[in-house]
Design goal:
This protein has helices at about 30-40, 50-55, 60-70, 70-85, 100-110, 120-130, 140-155, 170-185, and strands at about 15, 20-25, 45-50, 90-95, 110-120, 160-165, 190. The chain has about 190 residues and is of the alpha/beta class.
């Protein structure tokens, strides 16, 4: 008989989410992975903006970048995020560059609570190296590109209402930090 490690299962949510939680931050910060776990923890739906963009466009993000360029992608990203923000409270993982768009930033600030998943550059670089699906990293040296993007984007991420530091540890730690921050911010009420 093989011994298996039991999976961690979150109990029934004891809170009701009042607003959508928009996870923001660099590619590789864990927005999708943490977001799925957070949604499970809070018993609310999870939406990944990148996946929704691919569904709406009928092709991958890489194909959108290749065929239409980054400006067209950002325009589509804005439209998808604005549509998702009108859904009942859920967890929304935004794309790494979503906060660069002023309209998107303003709408997130109005309709959601934003949480910046802040990760050190070394962690981000290690995580993005695992997949070759990041259009902005397909040319040039990956670390230099990530460093430049992080420097450009940090001022926009810093506008988030909550900041949660994430490292290369278990995503459950980030989930609990977010839950604590949301509770303190009054975004959840006892169910």
């Amino acid at each position: 008989m093989l011994a298996t490690r039991p999976k961690r299962v979150y109990g029934v949510a004891m809170f009701s989410l009042k607003r959508t939680v928009a996870l923001v931050g660099m590619m590789g910060a864990g927005k999708s992975s943490v977001g799925r776990r957070l949604a499970c923890r809070l018993a609310v739906p999870f939406c990944d903006a990148d996946s929704e963009i691919e569904i709406a466009a009928g092709c991958s993000i890489v194909e959108i970048f290749d065929r239409f360029g980054e400006p067209a992608f950002r325009e589509g990203e804005r439209g998808v995020i604005l549509r998702l923000l009108h859904r009942p409270p859920h967890i929304l993982a935004t794309g790494g560059g979503a906060m660069l768009d002023q309209v998107t930033r303003e709408q997130i600030a109005k309709d959601a609570i934003s949480v910046w998943l802040r990760a050190p550059l070394d962690v981000l670089v290690a995580r993005v190296a695992r997949r070759d699906t990041r259009p902005l990293l397909r040319r040039g040296e990956r670390r230099e590109t990530m460093e430049r993007l992080l420097a450009e984007r940090e001022p926009f991420y810093a506008q988030a209402q909550l900041v949660v530091d994430v490292n290369d540890g278990p995503h459950g730690i980030a989930v609990e930090r977010i839950v604590a921050g949301l509770t303190s911010a009054g975004v959840m009420e006892t169910a």
